[in-house]
Amino acid sequence: MRHACLAIVVIFAALRAAAIEIEDHRFYPALAGDPAEIPLRVVSTADLDVFDPYLRAFQTARPGIAIDYTVVSSADLHRTIGDGAVYDLALSSAMDLQFQLANDGFAQSYRSTATEALPDWARWRDLIFAMSVEPAVVVFSTQRFAGLPVPTTRQELIALLRAHPDLFTGAVGTYDVRTSGLGYLLATQEDRSTDAFWRLSEVMGGLDPQLYCCSGQMIDDVSTGRLALAYNVLGSYAAERLVRESAGQMQILAMRDFANVIIRTAIVPATATRVEAAGALIDMLATLALREGRGTWPLPPLTQTGADAATGFGPIRLGPALMVYLDPLNRRGFLAEWENAMVQR
Amino acid sequence: MRAPSSIGRRLTLLLAGVAALLAALSWAMVTGIARQAAERTQDNVLAASAATIAETLRSDRGEVRLELPYSAFAMLGAISEDRVFYRVAAGDAHLTGYADLPVAAADAPRPGQVSFATGAYRGATVRIASVTRQVLAGDAPVTVTVTVAQTRTGVATIARDLSRLAAIFAVALFVLAVGLSAVATRASLRPLNEIAAAVSRRGPSDLRPIRRAAPAELVSLLVALNRLMDRLGQSLRRSEDFIAEAAHRVRTPLATVRAQAEIALRSADDAAARDRLRGMIRALDESSRSAGQLLDHATVAFRADDLARAPIDLADIVARTAAALEPTATMKDITILRETVQARVAGDPVLLDAALRNVLDNAIKYSPEDTTVTLHVSRAAGTARIAVCDEGPGLDSGPGGDPVDALTERFRRGSNTEGVVGSGLGLTIAREVLEAHGGRLELGPGPEGTGTCVTLVLPSS
Amino acid sequence: MRYLLVEDNAELAAAIVSRLALDGHAVDHAGSLADAADCLAATAYDLILLDVMLPDGDGRKFLARSRARLETPVIMLTARAQVSDRVGALDQGADDYITKPFDFSELEARCRAVLRRRGGVARNQIALGPALFDPLSGTLSHDGRTVDLKNREIRLLEVFARNPGQILSKTQLMDRLFSFDAAVTENAIEVYVGRLRRRIDGMGLRIETVRGLGYRMDA
After folding, report:
1. Which residues of B2-11 are buried (b: 16+ CB within 10 A; e: fewer)?
2. What residues of chain C lie within 8 A of the CB of B362, using their CB?
3. Whose C-alpha in A52, B70, B288, C196 is 20 to 30 A from the C-alpha of C106?
4. Do C167 and C178 meet the contact criterion of CB atoms below 8 Å apart?
């Protein structure tokens, strides 16, 4: 027993000590003003091609602010903020990790008329602010699905996978929940919400699933036909790609039985020094989140959740319950089960 | 401390003070109860959360295992947006959660019993609930402590909101109570004010008892007031009787002496004796006149304090006074002429009589033989006037100064009135009467530049 | 004239009676209201002089009681000059009032005024030779002609009328004519005598000057 505890502490320490892996980085110099001024340091899980329009719009409104934009995985983001790294704004789709940062005191509060306009479920204690809500969807390759019925529930999907192991073996993709914070969140929430999750996991485990760290690669592989379907892909990414690649190689599948809707959130880390600039960017994102209609922005507004793929399911609630699955004991138990089901070696 | 000038104000202030006290008290009570209720709610949820976690404790291959149930934190998230911390420890060993979270330790912890504590954690005040449970791990039972903590922002917010609501209610209650107490005060003091008004409406000499229905609390005041008025009336009657008696007793012998002196004068042949007798009579007359004027003056001073306001026509006063002084005038072959119009004023007829009589008396005294004194009543620019004009030698104000002031100054006489009996009190009396009525006395030369006109000016009604 | 004096002070009453007698008036004296009632029942008077304070009651109240059947004019004798007293006296039915101590000339003037107001009394006319003198109305009549006299002329003529054929000194006349507060000289007497002479001219009357002594009137 004592050894077990010690082991957890060692693992934690090891995780904390590990350097974070920077996936992408771009510096936006100030359009005007003092070039020596400290830039607004943003750490985010959103890919640059998704978030670039927002940053440019922000610089148009505030040309005096330079932006240093770093893309990391949600787990790394959580770790680096928890370690006290200096950032002015942290944007993440892993709302459980964002919540834990706020709960544990790594966020500072911010309040403005723009944040107060957000609905109650879209913010928590003036620490966390929603910037978009995005449903997790299934993306499939139209080419590889030719002649097959399109499943609309997990039950139908399970039946389809079981009926055509030839077509789907090695061609099903999903998150590796061990490395992807978002994947872990989606999996745990599905575990809580539907009993079909474990059966689906077992079925997918039998088909030699491809495990990914990030949505982008999954979508890339679906578009090239390497994957027949990708399970639990963030809707906004999928839609973004579909719009861009109008060839119609991919299709989005909204599950009628249940869909996880996650909230992409922003926090101002406790270490932030350019709080005013960070607040201005939050104000812009919050205002955009409440816009009517999707427009040309890559991320969908809060207002579209009800009518869109979520089909009546509200977004995952911001609250302490999110921390339940982050508990190391729970996590260890959940990952053990998941590995049993998914990694059938 | 200065005594408040009005019972009504004092009563209202007192009631308002009581209302303020009650309002503050009710506010404090509601605030206290609200805080307590919010705290108890939080305690209950914290206890339930800790208990829910404790229920999942189990032993697996000699190790303590647990699974944080989703509902344990969901219920905490349901009551408020507060930060949540937790910790599970088996004996001294840390199992999971926040290793540095303080534990609410009961003195003698019994399994299943929840202990509460309030402490500070990560820069915030937290409410801590701990529950212990014995778990058999391997051979030996281990005491596992489950601790759940939550910040108190939600409690504070609920308490503050309710407190503000209670404050609004308390202020509204207070305002309402003040308004009602003002109304109630006025209603309760109305009988008192009515009695006061009834007393103050009375004339200066109306000392009849007050007959009116009064509330039980005021009956004794009314009885006392009536008794006082009765005593005052008796005392006034006694002193009036006394003055009358005294005057009678002094003046009757004086009258005897004067009559005897006149008789003696008739029969005396010696010129020196006659002069002495004449001097004696003059002295008697002067003392008698002075005494009369002093009494008039006292009357004016007394009555002017609480002036009666009866409707009076100055023409009536002129007629009455002229008739009374006619015989005195004819003794010097002086004719009293009246030129009157109706001129209404509000005032005390007794005092106005006295004023005019003194002025007219003066005019007759200082007029030469066989002349005319004119009483002229007129109205002009909101005033009613009686001009008393004689054909006498005119007034000399002396070196510098206003003739009215100089002449009406008490006991002062005109400098050219040698040989005429009388004190200067007459004009003083007239002036005081007029000033009490809001009027004035004007002195000037007659219409043809001869003689003197004394004008009594009063505001007309 | 016949007066009724109601006055409880014996000395004052005696003085008033003597003084009025000097002017030729008849005066009955009553010391109380009861006595006064007796006198009024027995005799008719020209005028009543009524004191206010009497041993058996208040003069004003007595007046109020008997006013209805009493036609005689009343002058109140009061010890007080207070206005309220006078108003009270007049309200109770008195014709006038006079304050003690009083000047007898003023009393006389008031009596005359009251009597004149009441319509006069013819029987008080005095025969002066061929003429008739009415001191109350101040008229002198002779041979169908009537002369109105002024107050001092009346009083001067009355003095002469009551002392027919006597020499009256200027001093004597001065005392009778003027009140004591006026500073008059003997010249004033000469002026009034001169006026009266012009008035009674042709009335069969003559005032002669007695050098060094005074004046004398002959009918």
Report:
1. eeeeeebeeb
2. none
3. C196
4. no
pLDDT over threshold 90, residue C78: no
What is the domain-level CATH number for residue A78?
3.40.190.10
Ranked by mean pLDDT, the top range of A227-236, B16-25, C184-193 is B16-25
Is A272 in the same domain as A254?
Answer: no
Q: Which residues of C touch B296 (CB under 8 A)?
A: 81-83
Chains that touch C (3 or more CB pairs under 8 A): B
CB proximity A3 to B under 8 Å: no
Interface B-C: count of C-beta contacts within 8 A: 136
Residue for token pair 């005041």: B221
Q: Are B255 and C102 in contact (CB under 8 A)?
A: yes
**Nearby residues of B158 by Cβ (< 8 Å), 6 or more positions away:** B34, B38, B80
Lowest-confidence pick of A14-18, B39-43, B92-96, C130-134: A14-18
CA-to-CA distance for A266 and A90, rounded, in angstroms? 6
- DSSP-derived secondary structure letter, B199: H
The per-residue pLDDT for range A177-223, each reduced to its tens digit, is 888 888 899 999 888 888 888 999 999 998 999 998 878 788 888 88
Q: Which residues pair with B452 in a beta bridge?
A: B445
Distance of CA C124 to the CA centre of its chain: 11
Q: Do B93 and A1 touch (CB under 8 A)?
A: yes
Query: Which residue type is seen at C176?
Result: R
CA–CA separation, C174 and C49 (whole Å): 26
Positive or negative torsion for Cα A312, A316, A319, A323: positive
Tens-digit pLDDT profile for residues B426-455 = 888 888 899 888 899 888 887 777 788 889
Q: Distance between CA A233 and CA B186 in Å, rounded?
A: 79
Looking at the structure, do residues A67 and A147 belong to the same domain, yes or no?
Answer: no
CB contact under 8 A, A5 and B93: yes
Average pLDDT rounded to a whole number, residues C22-35: 88
> Can you give the pLDDT at residue A7?
43
Q: What is the ipTM of this complex?
A: 0.81
When mean pLDDT is compared across A43-47, C24-28, C92-96, the lowest value belongs to: C92-96
Q: Does domain C125-218 fall into CATH 2.40.110.10?
A: no
Mean pLDDT of C167-177: 82
Contacts of A1 in chain B (CB under 8 A): 62-64, 90, 93, 137, 142
What's this model's pTM, rounded to 2 decimal places? 0.57
Predicted confidence (pLDDT) at residue B222 exceeds the cutoff of 60 = yes
pLDDT at residue C181, rounded to an integer: 60
- C and A in touch (3+ CB pairs within 8 angstroms): no
Domains of chain B: 7-159 (no CATH), 308-459 (3.30.565.10)
Residues B83, A333: C-beta atoms closer than 8 Å: no
Cα gap B353→B360, rounded to integer Å: 10
Residue A15 binned pLDDT confidence (cut-offs 50, 70, 90): very low
How does the average pLDDT of chain A come out, rounded? 84
C132 min Cα distance to partner chain B (Å): 22
**CATH architecture label of C2-117:** 3-Layer(aba) Sandwich (3.40)
Q: What is the DSSP string of A312-344?
A: TPPPPP-SGGGGGGGSHHHHHHHHHHHHHHH--
* Residue A86 belongs to domain spanning: 2-133+264-309
CA distance readout (Å), B358 to B71, B110, B324, B339, C83: 109, 111, 12, 19, 11
CA distances from C190 to B368, C156, C201, C207 (A): 17, 11, 16, 12
Is residue A198 situated within a structural domain?
yes
Chain A residue with the nearest C-alpha to that of B68: A324
Touching subunits of A (3+ CB pairs, under 8 Å) are B
Give B86-117 pLDDT, tens digit per residue. 999 888 888 888 888 888 876 656 777 888 99
Residue C72 contacts by C-beta under 8 Å, 6 or more apart in sequence?
C4, C40, C44, C45, C46, C47, C48
